[in-house]
Amino acid sequence: MPLPTSLRGQLLLAVLLALAVAQAISAAITVVTRTEAVRAAQIGEALDRTAALIFVLDRTPRDLHANLLRATETPLTQLAIEARPTLDSDGPGLKRARRRLAAAMSDVGERTMRMALTDISGAQVIAPPQPPPQRLDRDGRMRRRPPPDSVDPRALTISLQLADGDWLNAEIRFPRPDHSLPVLPLVSFILAAAAIGVALWLTLGRMLGPLRRLAGAAERLGRGEEVGDLPATGPFEMRALTEAFNQMQQRLHRMVSDRTQMLAALGHDLRSPLTALRVRAEMVDDDETRERLLISLAEMGEMVEQTLTYARGVWTREAVESVDARDLLRDLEDEGEHKGVGMRLVLPDAPVMLRLRPATIRRALRNLIDNARRYGGAADAVEITLRAGAQTATIEIADRGPGIPEAELPRMFDPFVRLEASRSRETGGTGLGLSIARSIVQAHGGEVTLLNRPGGGLIARLTLPRPVEAAVEG
């Protein structure tokens, strides 16, 4: 049986296990205490009966002693009057029993006594371990022997001197104490565990509800979604945590806003000189020189835009929407057809719903598709596959180009990194396309990896998280 994975389930299981262990220890202590109490009561009763028997024997004619012993014996008690005592000395640990027997025999005066509590399997056994022969009770019915497993293995042996000098030797065995627990404590434990479980479940629900909301808000914030201030509810610690999250979110928004304004101003300052240079280049009379200047200025403008885009990251004001990834890829396929780019889509039949910024994620996919088209060899060699998992959706963009050496794969997402051997400046861009794509995907809670394709080529694998409700429906 798998253990619960939620904090509520684990805490509830731990408390119930602790309660069960405490109940088991309490039950064990109760059984031991009850056993000792029953044993003390049994020994006390045996001593009182022995003292009463001595009192009667001292006042009964000697020829009636045998009949008196037979009437007093039970299946667990053996009595005999003999010239010598069975015990030569007292056994250990029976001082309280000897004092009680002496007190019970105060009416007959002080007598010599010896007492020992022995194990029937030990060396001090004075009688065979089997019960005495069956006898008839006073009503003529056969006395029933107790089952062997119901008799305690220890026996109390007593040797008492009578008034006439003979010795009463007695071996008294006791019924084995009942170690079974009564039903009432078990029912009480079940009811207590149920009450504690219900109370703990409701209390933990009240405590963990704000924590679940906080976790969901942190996940949405990590994907770049707008998250309002959370209500501070629950225990003091949860309220403090929620307020700290709200303050962190406000600081983060201020930092992003300041960064966006700074980059906007920087972009304006960088574009203005390029625009002025472009106007002056248009005025150059030599056609070849003018063309080269305009190409260089266009490249510089592209580098500025790409650099600003990478520095700005994905912090835009675009709202997050629920989008079917299949429709997104079909739109990109249509765009590619207009540009003369051939693509082959492999899509599942069922919708694959994702929480995305459509325009932003479309830019990341365009970068990956352009990368595959530019270095993929044949014009129709770009293959796009969409797979829907339980928790994530995977988009693979594959080409049939030369691929990338394994040692270079980890650094391909670094800014301005290009492989000169196959991705030269004439055919390549600024070296920021993959970096921008990864930043966009990571801002959506996903990841992008590059793998060499079996048989030649490269695979850009893009993984995006699916909303909980979409994962369940899918």
Automatic annotation (TrEMBL):
Residues 265-468 form the Histidine kinase domain. Gene3D superfamilies: 1.10.287.130, Histidine kinase-like ATPase, C-terminal domain (3.30.565.10). It is found in: Cell inner membrane. It comes from the Bacteria. SUPFAM superfamilies: ATPase domain of HSP90 chaperone/DNA topoisomerase II/histidine kinase, HAMP domain-like, Homodimeric domain of signal transducing histidine kinase. Its EC number is 2.7.13.3. Its main location: membrane. It holds the Pfam family HAMP. One of its GO terms (cellular component) is plasma membrane. The chain crosses the membrane at residues 183-204. It catalyses: ATP + protein L-histidine = ADP + protein N-phospho-L-histidine. Residues 124-153 are annotated as: Disordered. PROSITE patterns: HAMP, HIS_KIN. Keywords: ATP-binding, Cell inner membrane, Cell membrane, Kinase, Membrane, Nucleotide-binding, Phosphoprotein, Transferase, Transmembrane, Transmembrane helix, Two-component regulatory system. Residues 205-257 form the HAMP domain. SMART domains: HAMP, HATPase_c, HisKA. InterPro entries: 2C_sensor_his_kinase, HAMP_dom, HATPase_C_sf, HATPase_dom, His_kinase_dom, HisK_dim/P_dom, HisK_dim/P_sf, Sig_transdc_His_kin-like_C. It is a multi-pass membrane protein. One of its GO terms (molecular function) is ATP binding. This is histidine kinase. It comes from Paracoccus suum. The lineage of its organism: Bacteria, Pseudomonadati, Pseudomonadota, Alphaproteobacteria, Rhodobacterales.
